[in-house]
Design goal:
This is Peptidase S9. InterPro entries: AB_hydrolase_Est10, AB_hydrolase_fold. Keywords: Membrane, Transmembrane, Transmembrane helix. It is built from 15 helices and 9 strands. By secondary structure, it is of the alpha/beta class. It has 2 domains: 206 residues, no CATH class; 237 residues, 3-Layer(aba) Sandwich (Rossmann fold). The chain has a 9-stranded mixed sheet with strand order 1-2-4-3-5-6-7-8-9, sandwiched between helices. The two termini are 33 Å apart. About 4% of the residues have low confidence.
Length: 547
C-alpha cells in the first residue's frame, strides 16, 4: 500500500512538473514562424548577357588601366585611403563607379580589385575606398553616417579628370546595399545603382530567413529550426546590435535611378526572389521601371568554386562583362523599353524561405535576459555547492561542541537535491553543446550526420528523465512530512541511532525535518532549487519540452 502511495505521489509530481514546463515552453514561442517561399520568379532566358538597342558598348580589355592611390578626408582627424583605377586614353565624359563595401571587408587593397580593374578596362573609372573602421564594429554601425562618409569618396570620383559626373553611379554588395540605398534616396542625380546580393529587409528579418535556409540545407531537426523565431524576435540592444532593426525599405521607395540587381543562386542567405520583387515593386511605384535582374550560378560574392566566401575564388565568368555592358548602356541613355535583352534572366532561382514582414518575441524578449538565465543556471548550483561545503565544515565543528542535534536536511533530500541539480545541468550543458555544433555545421553548410539528427530526440528524452529525477524531490518531501506525522513527533530510528553512537540521551534526539532545518540549509536548498528552475526555463526556451 505504501509503495502505491509513493508511486502515486511520484506520478503526480511528474505530471505537475511536466504540465508546468510544457506551459512554459508554449509561452516561449512568439507565435510566428518562417514560412516556405512560393512566389518564384521565372527568368526569360538562362543567358545573362546584357545589350542595348542604342548601340554597342565598350568591351572588357579595350583599355589599359592606371591605378592611383588617393587620400579621402572624412573628418578633421580622420582620413582613409582609396584606389582609383581609370582607363588610359578613354575619351572625356566617360562613366564612373564608386564601390561600397559589404560586411566582411575593410581595406581597398583587399577587395574589388578584379572587379574594379575589369570595369576600368571597359572605359569606366572606378574608386574603391577603405571602409571607415573607427566607427564600425561588430556591435555598432550607423548606416546614415557611413553613407555620408562614402559621399566624400563620391565627390572625388565625380571630379576625377575625364569622368562625367552625370554618369557616375554606385556598386554595392550585401550590407553595402543598405548604405547605397540611403545615398540613392538622398541624391537622385546619381546615374545608376548596382545592387549585388542585397539583404533588402531589416537584419533580423533577413537573418530569420537565412538561418532557416542553412538549417534546412544541413538537415537540422525541425525542433532546432523552430527556435529561430525565439532568437530573431529578441531585443538585441543589450549587445548594442540596434542596427539589426535598420529598415531600408522606405529608401527603395525613392529608387529612381536605373538599377541592376544581381543574385547568386547558390546564396541561401539572401532573399534572392522575394527581395528582387520587393525592390522592383517599390521602384515602380516611384516611376522607375528600368530595373534589370540577373541570376548567376555563384555564391554570395558572385564567385564560383564554393558556396562559402573564400579567398581566391574566381568571379562568375560572365559577371564583369555584364556589369560593364549595363553601365555603358546606361551611359548611352538606355531606357527600360530600349534593352535588347530581357530584364530578368539567368539561372532559375529557388528561395527556400520567406523573410518575415514582422518579428516579435516570446516570454524571454531580450538577449540579456536569456544570457542571465543561462548564467544563473550554472552559477546558482555552484553557489549552493559552496554553501553545502561550508555547512559540512560548520556542522562538524558544531557536533564536537554541542550535545544537541544540528540543523539538517530531511531524509534523502540532499541526495535528491544534488541528483536533480546535476541532471538539470548535464541536460542543459549537452543541449547547448548540441546547438553549438549544429550552428557550426550550418555556418559551414555541412550536413548533419544521422546520429546528430537523432540526437535532438535523445536530448528531449534526457530532459524528460530530468523531470523524473526532479519528481522524486517533492514526492520525498511529502513522504517525510507524512512519516513525521505518523511518528507523532517521536524520535525516529535515524536520530536514536545517532544519539546512541554519540552516547547521548535518547530524549535529546528530535525527528529530522521533512525538507530542511536551519537558515544555512534552507539557503543551500533555495540556491539549488533556483538553479534547477533556471535550467528548466532554459531547457523550455530551447524547446526541449515540446512534444
Amino acid at each position: 500500500m505504501r509503495i502505491l502511495k509513493r508511486l502515486s505521489a511520484l506520478l503526480l509530481s511528474f505530471a505537475v512538473l511536466f504540465g508546468l514546463v510544457s506551459g512554459l515552453n508554449a509561452l516561449m514561442n512568439p507565435g510566428w514562424q518562417v514560412e516556405p517561399y512560393k512566389d518564384h520568379i521565372r527568368p526569360a532566358t538562362a543567358d545573362t548577357a546584357i545589350a542595348s538597342n542604342r548601340g554597342a558598348t565598350t568591351p572588357e580589355g579595350h583599355y589599359q588601366t592606371k591605378e592611383t592611390w588617393v587620400s579621402v578626408k572624412l573628418a578633421p582627424e580622420v582620413s582613409i585611403q582609396a584606389i582609383v583605377r581609370e582607363p588610359v586614353g578613354a575619351p572625356a565624359g566617360h562613366p564612373a563607379c564608386l564601390f561600397i563595401h559589404g560586411a566582411g571587408t575593410g581595406k581597398a587593397a583587399d577587395v574589388y580589385g578584379d572587379l574594379a580593374s575589369a570595369l576600368a578596362s571597359a572605359g569606366i573609372t572606378t574608386l574603391v575606398p577603405d571602409k571607415r573602421l573607427d566607427t564600425y564594429t561588430t556591435f555598432h554601425r550607423d548606416y546614415a553616417d557611413m553613407a555620408a562618409d562614402y559621399g566624400k569618396s563620391l565627390d572625388i570620383l565625380r571630379s576625377w579628370p575625364g569622368v562625367d559626373s552625370a554618369k557616375t553611379g554606385l556598386y554595392a554588395e550585401s550590407e553595402g546595399t543598405w548604405i547605397s540605398s540611403i545615398m540613392t534616396a538622398q541624391d537622385p542625380t546619381l546615374a545608376y545603382s548596382i545592387l549585388t546580393s542585397p539583404p533588402v529587409y531589416p537584419g533580423r528579418s533577413q537573418m530569420s530567413m537565412a538561418v532557416s535556409s542553412y538549417l534546412d540545407l544541413i538537415g537540422a531537426p525541425a525542433g532546432i529550426q523552430a527556435q529561430i523565431p525565439k532568437l530573431m524576435g529578441m531585443n538585441f540592444s543589450p549587445l548594442g546590435l540596434e542596427y539589426a532593426d535598420f529598415n531600408t525599405l522606405p529608401n527603395w521607395d525613392k529608387l529612381t535611378q536605373p538599377t541592376l540587381i544581381n543574385f547568386g543562386t547558390s546564396d541561401d542567405s539572401m532573399p534572392v526572389e522575394q527581395g528582387a520583387q520587393e525592390i522592383t515593386r517599390r521602384a515602380a511605384k516611384a516611376g522607375n521601371t528600368n530595373v534589370t535582374l540577373r541570376y548567376y550560378p555563384a555564391n554570395h560574392q558572385m564567385r564560383m568554386g564554393s558556396l562559402l566566401a573564400k579567398a581566391g575564388l574566381p568571379l562568375e565568368p560572365h559577371y564583369t562583362h555584364n556589369l560593364e555592358d549595363w553601365i555603358n548602356a546606361i551611359s548611352l541613355g538606355t531606357k527600360s523599353n530600349e534593352w535588347a535583352t530581357p530584364m530578368i534572366a539567368g539561372v532559375q532561382p529557388r528561395q527556400l524561405f520567406t523573410a518575415p514582414r514582422t518579428t516579435h518575441h516570446g516570454l524571454i524578449g531580450s538577449v540579456g535576459a536569456l544570457i542571465a538565465v543561462l548564467v544563473a543556471s550554472f552559477v546558482l548550483p555552484a553557489l549552493a555547492l559552496v554553501g553545502a561545503l561550508f555547512l559540512v565544515i560548520a556542522g562538524s565543528s558544531r557536533r564536537r561542541r554541542s550535545t544537541s542535534n544540528t540543523p539538517a536536511f530531511g531524509p534523502k533530500i540532499v541526495g535528491l537535491l544534488w541528483a536533480g541539480s546535476l541532471a538539470s545541468l548535464a541536460s542543459l550543458g549537452i543541449s547547448l553543446a548540441y546547438i553549438g555544433v549544429t550552428a557550426t555545421h550550418a555556418l559551414q553548410l555541412e550536413p548533419l550526420t544521422a546520429n546528430m539528427i537523432r540526437g535532438w530526440t535523445e536530448l528531449k528524452l534526457l530532459a524528460l528523465l530530468v523531470l523524473v529525477v526532479l519528481a522524486f524531490l517533492p514526492a520525498r518531501a511529502l513522504h517525510n512530512r507524512m512519516a513525521a506525522k505518523r511518528s507523532g513527533d517521536q524520535p525516529n530510528s535515524y536520530t536514536i541511532m545517532a544519539c546512541h553512537a554519540r552516547k547521548l540521551p535518547a530524549q535529546s534526539a528530535t525527528p529530522r525535518p521533512a525538507i530542511a532545518q536551519g537558515w544555512g540549509h534552507w539557503m543551500v536548498l533555495i540556491l539549488a532549487l533556483a538553479g534547477i528552475v533556471c535550467c528548466l526555463v532554459s531547457l523550455s526556451f530551447w524547446g526541449l519540452f515540446a512534444w
